[in-house]
Specification:
The protein is of the alpha+beta class and about 140 residues long. It is about 30% helix and about 20% strand. A five-stranded antiparallel sheet has the order 1-2-3-4-5.
Length: about 140
Protein backbone atom coordinates (compact mmCIF):
# COMPACT_ATOMS: atom_id res chain seq x y z
CA UNK A 1 0.00 0.00 0.00
CA UNK A 2 1.37 3.38 -0.98
CA UNK A 3 1.81 6.03 1.66
CA UNK A 4 -0.21 9.16 1.00
CA UNK A 5 1.89 11.99 -0.31
CA UNK A 6 1.69 14.94 2.08
CA UNK A 7 0.05 17.92 0.48
CA UNK A 8 1.89 21.21 0.43
CA UNK A 9 0.32 23.93 2.50
CA UNK A 10 -1.49 26.70 0.71
CA UNK A 11 1.04 29.19 2.09
CA UNK A 12 3.89 27.18 0.58
CA UNK A 13 2.11 27.05 -2.78
CA UNK A 14 1.60 30.82 -2.68
CA UNK A 15 5.29 31.28 -1.81
CA UNK A 16 6.20 29.17 -4.86
CA UNK A 17 3.83 31.13 -7.10
CA UNK A 18 5.38 34.43 -6.01
CA UNK A 19 8.90 33.06 -6.48
CA UNK A 20 8.04 31.63 -9.91
CA UNK A 21 6.73 34.99 -11.13
CA UNK A 22 10.15 36.52 -10.31
CA UNK A 23 9.25 39.97 -11.58
CA UNK A 24 7.06 42.94 -10.64
CA UNK A 25 4.01 40.65 -10.53
CA UNK A 26 5.57 38.50 -7.82
CA UNK A 27 6.60 41.58 -5.85
CA UNK A 28 3.11 43.05 -6.20
CA UNK A 29 1.35 39.83 -5.23
CA UNK A 30 3.65 39.48 -2.22
CA UNK A 31 3.05 43.10 -1.15
CA UNK A 32 -0.72 42.69 -1.41
CA UNK A 33 -0.52 39.41 0.53
CA UNK A 34 1.32 41.23 3.33
CA UNK A 35 -1.31 43.98 3.38
CA UNK A 36 -4.10 41.41 3.60
CA UNK A 37 -2.37 39.82 6.62
CA UNK A 38 -1.84 43.23 8.23
CA UNK A 39 -5.50 44.12 7.72
CA UNK A 40 -6.71 40.76 9.06
CA UNK A 41 -4.26 38.75 11.16
CA UNK A 42 -6.87 35.95 11.26
CA UNK A 43 -6.93 35.51 7.49
CA UNK A 44 -6.56 31.95 6.17
CA UNK A 45 -4.53 31.26 3.05
CA UNK A 46 -5.95 28.69 0.67
CA UNK A 47 -5.07 27.38 -2.77
CA UNK A 48 -8.07 26.92 -5.07
CA UNK A 49 -8.45 26.85 -8.81
CA UNK A 50 -4.65 27.06 -9.12
CA UNK A 51 -4.55 30.48 -7.47
CA UNK A 52 -4.02 32.05 -4.03
CA UNK A 53 -7.19 32.60 -2.01
CA UNK A 54 -7.54 34.54 1.24
CA UNK A 55 -10.50 33.67 3.45
CA UNK A 56 -12.12 34.60 6.73
CA UNK A 57 -15.60 33.15 7.30
CA UNK A 58 -15.69 32.72 3.53
CA UNK A 59 -13.59 33.88 0.61
CA UNK A 60 -12.30 37.46 0.85
CA UNK A 61 -10.35 37.60 -2.39
CA UNK A 62 -8.26 35.70 -4.88
CA UNK A 63 -4.91 36.81 -6.29
CA UNK A 64 -4.39 36.09 -9.95
CA UNK A 65 -1.46 37.14 -12.10
CA UNK A 66 -1.53 37.85 -15.79
CA UNK A 67 1.03 39.20 -18.23
CA UNK A 68 0.19 42.87 -17.64
CA UNK A 69 -1.76 42.85 -14.38
CA UNK A 70 -2.07 41.39 -10.90
CA UNK A 71 -5.79 40.99 -10.19
CA UNK A 72 -7.32 40.82 -6.73
CA UNK A 73 -10.91 39.65 -7.07
CA UNK A 74 -13.12 40.21 -4.04
CA UNK A 75 -15.74 37.47 -3.89
CA UNK A 76 -18.46 39.77 -2.54
CA UNK A 77 -17.02 43.05 -3.74
CA UNK A 78 -20.32 44.37 -5.08
CA UNK A 79 -21.61 44.40 -1.48
CA UNK A 80 -18.70 46.52 -0.22
CA UNK A 81 -18.50 50.30 -0.11
CA UNK A 82 -15.48 51.33 -2.16
CA UNK A 83 -15.25 55.02 -1.34
CA UNK A 84 -11.62 55.17 -2.51
CA UNK A 85 -12.61 53.62 -5.86
CA UNK A 86 -10.03 50.85 -5.73
CA UNK A 87 -12.23 48.51 -7.74
CA UNK A 88 -11.41 49.07 -11.39
CA UNK A 89 -12.32 45.73 -12.97
CA UNK A 90 -15.27 43.31 -13.09
CA UNK A 91 -17.58 46.22 -12.32
CA UNK A 92 -20.59 44.90 -14.22
CA UNK A 93 -21.17 41.76 -12.15
CA UNK A 94 -23.73 41.42 -9.38
CA UNK A 95 -21.36 39.86 -6.85
CA UNK A 96 -17.61 40.18 -7.53
CA UNK A 97 -15.38 43.22 -7.98
CA UNK A 98 -11.67 43.31 -8.77
CA UNK A 99 -8.65 45.51 -8.46
CA UNK A 100 -6.25 45.33 -11.40
CA UNK A 101 -2.75 46.46 -10.47
CA UNK A 102 -0.38 47.30 -13.32
CA UNK A 103 3.40 47.49 -13.20
CA UNK A 104 4.72 50.40 -11.10
CA UNK A 105 1.19 51.21 -9.93
CA UNK A 106 0.65 52.11 -6.29
CA UNK A 107 -2.40 51.06 -4.32
CA UNK A 108 -3.74 53.23 -1.50
CA UNK A 109 -2.62 51.10 1.45
CA UNK A 110 -5.07 52.41 4.04
CA UNK A 111 -8.00 52.18 1.61
CA UNK A 112 -7.02 48.63 0.63
CA UNK A 113 -6.75 47.50 4.26
CA UNK A 114 -10.12 49.11 4.99
CA UNK A 115 -11.62 47.19 2.06
CA UNK A 116 -10.19 43.90 3.37
CA UNK A 117 -11.56 44.63 6.87
CA UNK A 118 -14.93 45.47 5.36
CA UNK A 119 -14.93 42.15 3.45
CA UNK A 120 -14.14 40.31 6.69
CA UNK A 121 -16.95 42.12 8.50
CA UNK A 122 -19.37 41.31 5.66
CA UNK A 123 -18.43 37.61 5.73
CA UNK A 124 -18.66 37.52 9.53
CA UNK A 125 -22.01 39.30 9.66
CA UNK A 126 -23.88 36.15 8.78
CA UNK A 127 -25.69 37.83 5.92
CA UNK A 128 -27.29 35.21 3.70
CA UNK A 129 -25.45 34.40 0.52
CA UNK A 130 -26.95 35.86 -2.62
CA UNK A 131 -29.21 33.34 -4.30
CA UNK A 132 -29.30 32.81 -8.04
CA UNK A 133 -33.01 32.04 -7.78
CA UNK A 134 -35.34 34.93 -8.42
CA UNK A 135 -38.96 35.20 -7.49
CA UNK A 136 -41.25 35.57 -10.46
Amino acid sequence: MKKPVPMESASALIDKKIEKLADWRGETLNRMRQLIHEADPGVVEEWKWGTPVWSHDGILCTGESYKKVVKLTFAKGASLKDTARLFNSSLDGNIRRAIDIHEAEDVDVSAFKALVRQAVAFNSSGKPKLSKKRKS
